[in-house]
Amino acid sequence: MTRNPFPMISAAALTVLIPAAAFANFSVGDTLGTDLEEIRAKFEAQGYTVTEIEAEDGEIEVEYLMDGQEYEVTIASDTGTVVEIEAEDGDDDDDGEDDDE
User: Fold this and answer.
1) How many CB atoms are located within 10 Å of the residue 44 CB?
2) Which of 8, 49, 93, 99 could form a disulfide with 65 if both were Cys (CB 3.0 to 4.6 A apart)?
3) Contact 80, 31 (CB under 8 A)
4) Residue 86 forms beta bridges with which residues?
5) SS (H, E, C) the chain
6) Residue 61, strand partner residues
7) Rounded to whole angstroms, how far apart are CA atoms 97 and 53?
8) φ and ψ at 19, to 5 degrees?
9) Model pTM greater than 0.70?
């Protein structure tokens, strides 16, 4: 008797796709612009709460909240293109020290 591999393939696909859904409105490669207030407006128009936005070292970093989780998007300041999206773990801040100690 042969087994149908579809359920296993489907489960593997969901494992990859579910975390990606958290970043559904912005993806790496999207162009969000280079003006900080324009970028903030784009995030807020999607219903996100922007907690910090700053430009330094050739990048624009946007920290925002979605469903109680904090995320950070890095944008190339020369092109306005998203280069990285990551979920923040909440254990540390810019100094790299654990805030819970």
Assistant:
1) 12
2) 49
3) yes
4) 72
5) CCCCCHHHHHHHHHHHHHHHHCCCCCCCCCECCCCHHHHHHHHHHCCCEEEEEEEECCEEEEEEEECCEEEEEEEECCCCEEEEEEECCCCECCCCCECCC
6) 54, 74
7) 21
8) -60, -35
9) no
Radius of gyration of the chain (CA): 17
Buried b (16+ CB within 10 A) or exposed e, 10-28: eeeeeeeeeeeeebeebee
| Residue 64 one-letter amino acid | Y
pLDDT 10s digit of each residue in the chain, 101 long?
Answer: 566 655 555 544 444 444 444 444 789 999 999 999 999 999 999 999 999 999 999 999 999 998 889 999 999 999 999 999 999 876 555 555 545 44
Burial of 49 (C-beta count, 10 Å sphere; 0-12/13-18/19+): exposed
Give me the sign of the Cα torsion angle 19, 20, 23, 24: negative
